[in-house]
Design goal:
two-stranded antiparallel ribbon, 7 helices, elongated, single chain, mainly alpha, 2 strands
């Protein structure tokens, strides 16, 4: 690559549309509005990551999950695309009281199915997924809840 720009998704799409960029990388929900935008005016091609590269990424960060973008998600992309995905995490102050964080974690966990009604990519997420260890310490209140549910050590 002769040049790398760190820009917003909308700027990346603009660069692609006017021929000033040949590709861009993003981490977002599926389907991504920026990719849909680009696909309305340009023929697009999505590239899969090789399995060995996915495994290398997972060694660096256990939070990277193998994800498949199903064929037909984007116009003209009639094949599955393999890549990595990750969960968005709620990061809070370590100074918050343990009972408060316990309650927040409990409410989110007990309503995880409803989160899927708001963000399609959350469909099928479980409490175990919410407790995935990505190397960032859990607040004691969250950890207490996850231990009670048997999804954390």
């Amino acid at each position: 690559m002769s040049k790398v720009n760190h820009v917003s998704y909308s700027d990346a799409v603009s660069l692609m549309k006017d021929g000033h960029a040949q590709g861009y990388l993003l981490g977002t929900t599926i389907p991504a509005s920026s990719i849909l935008d680009l696909a309305t005016t340009k023929k697009i091609r999505l590239l899969s990551l090789p399995e060995d590269k996915i495994q290398e990424l997972q060694k660096m960060n256990a939070g990277y999950l193998r994800r498949v973008i199903p064929a037909g998600t984007y116009p003209g992309v009639n094949y599955d695309v393999v890549g990595v995905g990750y969960f968005t995490h709620l990061v809070i102050s370590a100074k918050l009281p343990e009972p408060l964080v316990y309650k927040i974690t409990k409410v989110l966990s007990e309503n995880v199915d409803r989160l899927g009604d708001v963000v399609k990519d959350m469909k099928g997420v479980t409490v175990k997924d919410l407790a995935l260890d990505i190397g960032v310490p859990f607040h004691p209140g969250a950890l207490k809840y996850y231990k009670e549910k048997g999804v954390a050590k």
